[in-house]
Amino acid sequence: MAFDIEMIKKVYSQYEERIAAARQVVNKPLTLAEKILYTHLWDGNATQAYERGNSYVDFAPDRVAMQDATAQMALLQFMQAGRPKVAVPSTVHCDHLIQARDGAEQDLTRAKSESSEVFNFLSSVSNKYGIGFWKPGAGIIHQVVLENYAFPGGMMIGTDSHTVNAGGLGMVAIGVGGADACDVMAGLPWELKFPKLIGVKLTGKLSGWAAPKDVILKVAGILTVKGGTGAIVEYFGEGAESLSCTGKGTICNMGAEIGATTSTFGYDASMERYLRATGRAEVAEAANIIKQHLTADPEVYANPEQYFDQLIEINLSELEPSLNGPFTPDLYTPVSRMREEAEKNGWPLKVEWGLIGSCTNSSYEDLSRAASIAKQAIDKGLVTKAEFGINPGSEQVRYTADRDGLLSTFEDLNATIFTNACGPCIGMWDRAGADKQEKNTIVHSFNRNFAKRADGNPNTYAFVTSPEMVAAIAISGDLGFNPVTDTLTNKNGEQVKLDAPTGDELPAKGFDVEDPGYQAPAADGSAVQVDVSPTSDRLQLLEPFAAWEGTDLKGLKLLIKAKGKCTTDHISMAGPWLKYRGHLDNISNNMLIGAVNYFNDQTDTVKNQLTGEYGAVPATQRAYKAVGIGSIVVGDENYGEGSSREHAAMEPRHLGVRAVLVKSFARIHETNLKKQGMLGLTFANKDDYDKIQEDDTIDILGLTTFTPGKPLTLVLHHADGSQEEILANHTYNAQQIEWFKAGGALNIIRANQAN
Ligand code: F3S
């Protein structure tokens, strides 16, 4: 579980000089986020000031973390790089593939047998390439990272959007796609648009029922699900210092729900306490030496409006406990208004389930505060009206909470203790009766509450709140229950009131664990075999893509002219297909099945130019591939927006699509296409989109002189024998043109390793 103190000390040893260089170019006091960004430039000391929201910058992250669903393709790609070991400390965490149903023990046993081939692959590939492996049941990636690896002033990337959780320990931690993780593990820089900065000044102090969760629920209500896009949110002020480290983690975690690049807090006493309590006194001591650099310059916090692009102020003393939802995490309702809002909007008041857990809220403090409510319920003779489920964040939290009697308190209320894993938060919940799709309400301490997220039922109204509020509301069984003011009737018919929660920021007797579930990698992995069965339908080793043939591309068939929105979900659908994300050939059967065909307004129905018949997109493309004919995909504006899912670029590449020609690209998808050795082109004249006809055969000319900034020529051969020439722009730089020629970026990395 080594937390790489030498790496951390190296990062800190560079701080002084790099911050001095940054100060010189920026020429004004620096925020914390700027300090972390400028100390992690790929090229070392800053030589220019970057424009927030505009400049694309190469960074050198300190760590990579991957969860079991996204790690599969990231590591299959990494294997292509030909490196003996990962270039930066990296970990894999098995938390997404464990379904909650009967309780921890049975559920874990079932998951291990159902997903054994995925777990075995991840275990063996981690062992071989120097990656720390956290077994199924060890905990949820972001809690485990906070407990073991996050450090103030560090930068990490992770293949999960809630990687941002590590901001609770003063990191800049950002969620990325597998291709980015692969690059960083292979020793390449990682590119990010220099973010804008949102400051959140916290004054006052939380009290009563208000919890750190209420801070981010309030921020989400203010900024909405889009308000943080492209920005880092930096929290500061006396209120920030009064919050526990894991509470800060909760706030940063849900920064993903406002679209923020990430969120962070300056290094303070709560972080030092947490580092020491989790066995990292050495990190705390190293951080203390450069303390002044692990928070913004004092001028920034004195006049924040001058240094942030946007500023929000929240007085913690006035904050009310609240619930956000249903169906969106930014619909903010303070508990005092919930009954009225629910009645007005027809939200079912009867609460069926209360769920505590997820990477957002599964710390020791969370469990202890919720358990204090459960304990009162028992002592005051209350009977729980809703069902109760708990997913502890890590084995260390679970073991300690068990030792301290917190779990037995929940069990006394008939709670089911699920595995230390994501469970219902990622829809891995076999909820009895969910298939009946009845309208019902649940409350949970998770981060996301989009329709169908937890149990697949579109009629489940899910509300996000703090763990202690989940406990109170589940006990009452009433969404409108306000524990601050309302009473409940106990077994004896008496009216009783719940007192405000109490809890321990950190366990008084310290953390304890018998087996944390960690597997250290082999010191020399060269002899380790990676475990992939050739008959597996979930995993498939990748073959390198072929290099460019050195000529212009002629005779490409139009596969589909996509109309309107075409996101990465339309290109590579999620849902049931997630099962195949480690098997490129199988998952390619979802390629573009969500895209609308311009010529018939239907999805997944395109004309096969060889037979004249209409068929599914993947099948049609496979027919072209079988006879060695390349194809081209045409798209509209912002093609490939959505997630950074690399499958959306790998699938067309695998099936033989040679180029994607669109009015405009979402940048991440465009870069992913380039990495896979595809041609991503844009119409020089957007109206030329209208010239593309259903039976077109297309030539791409100019590839032998492919040069940055020089458009390519496309010849459209129409079915009536006529032809037209159009120009296509591209944004390939010299390096990216090499990627195209080599058949993909990984082919170049591998060739460089061999030399
Ligand atoms: Fe897992 Fe849910 Fe977090 S899926 S990583 S617990 S957001």
TrEMBL record:
Pfam families xrefs: Aconitase, Aconitase_C
Reactions mediated catalytically: citrate = D-threo-isocitrate
Keyword Metal-binding part of the UniProt annotation: yes
Required cofactor names: [4Fe-4S] cluster
Domain Aconitase/3-isopropylmalate dehydratase large subunit alpha/beta/alpha positions: 40-477
Iron-sulfur as UniProt keyword: yes
Keywords (A to Z) from UniProt: Iron, Iron-sulfur, Lyase, Metal-binding, Transit peptide, Tricarboxylic acid cycle
Top EC category: lyase
Molecular-function GO terms, alphabetical: aconitate hydratase activity
Signal peptide: none
Pathway(s) of this molecule: Carbohydrate metabolism; tricarboxylic acid cycle; isocitrate from oxaloacetate: step 2/2
Enzyme nomenclature, EC number: 4.2.1.3
Domain spans labelled Aconitase A/isopropylmalate dehydratase small subunit swivel: 558-685
Domain of life of the organism encoding this protein: Bacteria
Sequence similarity: Belongs to the aconitase/IPM isomerase family.
Name used for this protein in its record: Aconitate hydratase A
Species in which this protein is naturally found: Sphingobacterium suaedae
Lineage, opening ranks: Bacteria, Pseudomonadati, Bacteroidota, Sphingobacteriia, Sphingobacteriales
